[in-house]
Protein 1
Amino acid sequence: MNWYGIRAIYKFEMARTWRTLMQSIASPVLSTSLYFIVFGAAIGSRMGDIDGVSYGAFIIPGLIMLSLLSESISNASFGIFFPKFSGTIYEVLSAPVSAFEVVAGYVGAAATKSIILGLLILVTARFFVDYEIVHPFWMLGFLVLTALTFSMFGFIIGIWADDFQKLQVIPLMVVTPLTFLGGAFYSINMLPELWQKITLFNPVVYLISGFRWAFYGVSDVNVGISLGMTLLFLLLCMTGIWWIFRTGYRIKT
Amino acid sequence: MEPIISVKGLGKTYAGGFTALKNVDLDIQRGEIFALLGPNGAGKTTLISIVCGIVNPTSGSVIANGYDIQRDYRLVRSEIGLVPQELATDAFESVWATVNFSRGLFGKAPNPAYIEKLLRQLSLWEKRDSKIMALSGGMKRRVMIAKALSHEPKILFLDEPTAGVDVELRQDMWEMVRELRESGVTIILTTHYIEEAEEMADRVGVINHGEVILVEDKRTLMQKMGEKELSLHLPEPLDKVPEILADLPLTLSADGSQLVYRFDIKSSDTGITEFLRRLNEANIDFRDLHTRESSLEEIFVGLVRGKHAESEQQLTKEAQE
């Protein structure tokens, strides 16, 4: 195992984070705070409790997920896309690092950054609403698992994208809508019956539901199914990455 | 002695159908400077990209430092440094960070003393905290060399090292390449500048259209292929080559002040004595004389053209049959 290699990539990626602190940490925290003010405090004060949880507290898990998904994807995809774009990827390709080590470095750094961000949002939320965490261990578990999974997903997008537009299109056109429709701001039980069924095809529903269960002990779908779906998606992403390195797709000619 | 790199039957056809390498065999000896010479698009970069792991070969195998480049890629790559042709650097990193990154990536424990020595050698020490994007093109090239040497490789590939490089850096680079060879590093450089191969290399390989046409010790190559010229500067210009010299391989310069005699250094009788005797007979004086060997460039052009003509002849012959 080339530990120095993993550490080099990880450190390089984290250095990029500290360099772009405003963009990578401050801006997501600010925008989430705005959600808390608008939905949590202003509108939420006129809404009833959902499953015995105040609306302001109810949206916390969903909002963290929203940032976690989009930041994991954008971090990891940009992290691998940029060396491809600038040509510096030659060095990683010619280095004695295995596919696993490359992914560990890039995905590990992207996930670390998302986890830090998620925890920061959690702390920020405290300034606006009261909440408690029933299953802190599971909360962290879902946080780490989701960050890893979506950082891998981002890594795949970064490999697939051959221009900046493609880099943006999946997060903007697919992931953000799915998160908004995935019960970040409402319980899916509030939907008409037909839409409840349709919503179950949205994978993000399971992530948010499981995460919310860890907070409040209540969920839209069984937490076991949530965990299963999260692990399934992780497995799919790992398979995708394995295939990319086996075939050299878009990285080697 | 066992070659440090042994290329066998290497072929590469890109997805678009372009064949960059055709069944290439090549051995690089330990500790030598080997120049891979060829026009643009000949397959030089593809060849070294395969050895370095950036491009997958279509066929054939490469053994480097005793290990298969694909099966034992870790062992192979940790001993290889590559300076690619394109200037590809991170923009926002500092020089110090990027060179240390490279060392870590290649699996070596940090060694600040060595990196300092390397940066000083490449005149980069003063710039160690500068962001790479703030550096000039020549400085960026130095950074890429520092990155390639950061893990103390045994084999160094320099792909077109002096393309677009100022004279000072070129001199520094050649100096450094010589020092590296002294320390036992094997150096493979690709170039289409003949002077570079001529000045630097111990051996020269000529590649064209994806085929290695010839591999030869540089001196042998120049001796073997070389033609020599004997130029005479005349105090009184001539209108034409005098009758008495007409059967000799002579050319007269346009202004008639220089008479050039061509001879083959391989042949036992160069004919110089005869030429000088007849000059004396014809009462032609000369002010100065000098001889010149043909450069590698002339040899190279001759080879590439010759091969081309050969294959055309082959085609014509095949067409006739």
Note: The longest strand of chain B covers residues 19-28.
Protein 2
Amino acid sequence: MGDIVLKTHLALFLVLVTVALALVLPFLLPWSYDQIDWNAVRAPAFSGSHLFGTDEIGRDRLARLAAGTRITLMVAIAAALVSLIVGIAWGATAGWIGGRVDEAMMRIVDGLYALPFMFIVILLMVVFGRSILLVFVGIGLVEWLTMARVVRGQVMALKQRPFILAAEAAGTPSIAIMLRHILPNIAGVALAYLMLTVPQVVMVESFLSFLGLGVQEPLTSLGILVKEGADDMDMTPLGLALPGGLLVIILVCLTIEGERLRDRFS
Amino acid sequence: MLALITRRLMTAIPTLLVIILASFFLMRLAPGGPFDGERPLDPATQAALQQAYGLDRPLWEQAWLYISRLVQGDFGPSLVYRDFTVSELIAQGLPISLTLGGLAILLALLIGVTAGLFAAVRAGKATDKTIMMLATVATALPTFVTGPALALFLGLWLGLLPVSGIGEGGAWLIMPVVALALPVSGAIAKLTRAGLASVLKQDHIRSARARGLSETKIMLKHGLRTAMVPVASYLGPAAAGLLTGAVVVETVFGLPGLGRYFVQGALNRDYPLVLGVVTLYAALIILFNLFADLIYGWLDPRMRDG
């Protein structure tokens, strides 16, 4: 089973289809995600123009699913980029300078790794009024640790390579070496870990939204849809099954593709 | 070993202090206060309440007071559940959260190590690949999806298990613990499999084979012990993850654990309650990491001085 999934690139295919649908569907559907169809409250699937029916106040499930996926993926990509920037800056600095600075910086990473970070993020959300901008800055600031560790390891290995030593001997300033020689060489590995960060971030965003601390109404995200579905699951299981299933598919596929990339680069 | 414990406890104190102060000032930056209910109180009552709880003093003084009381084991009064002290709320919630987390980690170890072992024995074959694919799927299962899904299937449709609250016996624990344990068990299976794969190539395994030991004995006695080192180092982050997961699981299954108090406290600006839970969680996680390091040293004697 495992083999077939990997060989056929099934995971990548599913991710691309999901992204494409999330982008295109809102333009094709007759209903928008926050529009109420007063004639079809709690409509079952395949009724009229509602392919997956409507929710408890008559909003089209498919439209909400597409809008939610869009927001979730947007937040995830933005937060993953924040983590990429912070992680590379921290890891590259530690790895390049080395010695005591490196030790101190990595100690901080080790210390942060084990902390109940989600609780600090929850506090941040409460404090700064749950804006969507903060959702991804907050998550990105939490998820940079692995990236920093990986980048540091790569930079330390690169530092010993002859072409870097040559650049140093030629008197190239550190900043220039970093930008011209180091960064291009760690791009592949960083990309692989970026792929693995995205599902992590999706998970955190949905977790916060599920608790009512992330994305706020009228905007919607997969976490909010799962929450709405869970509250109403005894009436319409479809409300939980659709966003929950989609979320799991996205997480699994992104993880599989991320691990494949990582194994290729390490 | 004693040196390791002392050194860790010495670094734990400043770490805890930073966390407490950071959470303290973060909470206070938040708009709103604990006494903004549905109906606004009149200014005189508001001021009297502020004064009674010392909230009118300068922030640094309040922080200092909080920490000096904390050192004596006093978490202060809850500002929202007004008849309770934070210590009383913690005493109610902590046993529930610890039971959930503890059982979940045991279950995750049991499933994860067994699955990883089977995969490593059949390395490269279909069983191995299937188990590893399932492990990847398991790591990607968020508790807030599996929790409600389990409740729907086993609770509402089949009526096998209670959906909400603490019932008689242990049946109420099953679904929350399974939902919590699944992602962790996937990660443990992967680590076990990877650990065993690298250990089985080493010399001491070859000599064990040459000595004619049975394959089972080699796996369990010589392979698994060393292969558990990466698993042990994962236990610290896993504990942090379980405590966070517990917040969701407690919400989904209506269990009055610490995680629920934390979210409620943060929303209601119950400063002492939130600080108390954060402090306690941070302390627990630091302790758990120390514990993981001790297991680490026991598994791999080369690590003991490091």
Note: The interface with chain B takes residues 1-3, 5, 111, 113-120, 122-124, 126-127, 129, 199, 203, 206-207, 210-211, 213, 223, 226-227, 229-230, 233-234, 237, 240-241, 244, 247-248, 251-252, 254-256, 259 of chain A (CB under 8 Å).
